[in-house]
């Protein structure tokens, strides 16, 4: 098992590393293309702004590399949002690995932004990434932007309407939830990710 975390400037990198360490996996952070290509699994973490994360990926020479990866790739939080085509946050062109646009939550009565705390998952499609995670399981979220459910959606969550909480297509996966802060559900999702081979 060889897991690398892409240097994207996300503030959750250390907590993601710790989550993998709890599973007995030492994940290293790198921007070295050859090291990334050799990995069995690649993680794109991120807490912060989409534009800043994309700028960091560009400065590290990873924008063109990421779409060529064939091993399982997991985007977490903003890292998941970067997998889509565009984000309203900073009017940012993203990686375009999944179809869709990331939008800010609408300000409706009683809806606090950011969406922060524990919320329930609705399983939209069975998938190895969600093995052992049941309908209605709780996961932890912190985000102001979201992707609408689409063809790649594996699980949704409701916050003023349904949004994509977990996505997957081919070797590309994403979790809007924070697996590193989602207790047993998050641990199981990471274990499932490590079990996927492409």
Automatic annotation (TrEMBL):
Keyword Hydrolase among record annotations: yes
GO cellular component: cytoplasm
Subcellular localization(s) per the UniProt record: Cytoplasm
Main location: cytoplasm
Superkingdom to which the source organism belongs: Bacteria
Pfam families: GATase (PF00117)
Domain Glutamine amidotransferase: 5-194
Catalytic residue positions: 77 (nucleophile), 178, 180
Keywords, ordered alphabetically: Amino-acid biosynthesis, Cytoplasm, Glutamine amidotransferase, Histidine biosynthesis, Hydrolase, Lyase
Involved pathway(s): Amino-acid biosynthesis; L-histidine biosynthesis; L-histidine from 5-phospho-alpha-D-ribose 1-diphosphate: step 5/9
Reaction(s) the record says it catalyses: L-glutamine + H2O = L-glutamate + NH4(+); 5-[(5-phospho-1-deoxy-D-ribulos-1-ylimino)methylamino]-1-(5-phospho-beta-D-ribosyl)imidazole-4-carboxamide + L-glutamine = D-erythro-1-(imidazol-4-yl)glycerol 3-phosphate + 5-amino-1-(5-phospho-beta-D-ribosyl)imidazole-4-carboxamide + L-glutamate + H(+)
Sample GO molecular function, one term: lyase activity
EC number in record: 4.3.2.10, 3.5.1.2
One record GO biological process: L-histidine biosynthetic process
NCBIfam families (alphabetical): IMP_synth_hisH (TIGR01855)
Subunit-structure text: Heterodimer of HisH and HisF.
Function as written in the Swiss-Prot or TrEMBL entry: IGPS catalyzes the conversion of PRFAR and glutamine to IGP, AICAR and glutamate. The HisH subunit catalyzes the hydrolysis of glutamine to glutamate and ammonia as part of the synthesis of IGP and AICAR. The resulting ammonia molecule is channeled to the active site of HisF.
Name of the featured protein: Imidazole glycerol phosphate synthase subunit HisH
Organism: Ahniella affigens
């Amino acid at each position: 098992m060889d897991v690398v975390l892409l240097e994207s400037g996300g503030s959750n990198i250390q907590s993601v590393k710790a989550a993998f360490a709890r599973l007995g996996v030492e994940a290293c952070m790198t921007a070295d293309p050859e090291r990334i290509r050799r990995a069995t699994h690649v993680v794109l973490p991120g807490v912060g702004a989409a534009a800043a994360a994309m700028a960091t990926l560009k400065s590290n020479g990873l924008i063109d590399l990421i779409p060529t990866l064939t091993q399982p790739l997991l985007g977490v939080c903003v890292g998941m949002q970067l997998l889509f085509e565009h984000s309203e946050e900073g009017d940012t062109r993203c990686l375009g690995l999944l179809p869709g646009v990331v939008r800010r939550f609408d300000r409706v009565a009683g809806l606090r932004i950011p969406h922060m705390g524990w919320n329930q998952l609705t399983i939209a499609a069975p998938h190895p990434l969600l093995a052992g995670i049941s309908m209605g399981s709780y996961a932890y979220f912190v985000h102001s932007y979201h992707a609408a459910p689409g063809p790649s959606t594996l699980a949704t969550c409701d916050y003023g309407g349904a949004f994509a909480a977990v996505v997957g297509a081919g070797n590309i996966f994403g979790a809007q939830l924070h697996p590193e802060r989602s207790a047993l559900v998050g641990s199981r999702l990471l274990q499932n990710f490590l079990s996927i081979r492409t």
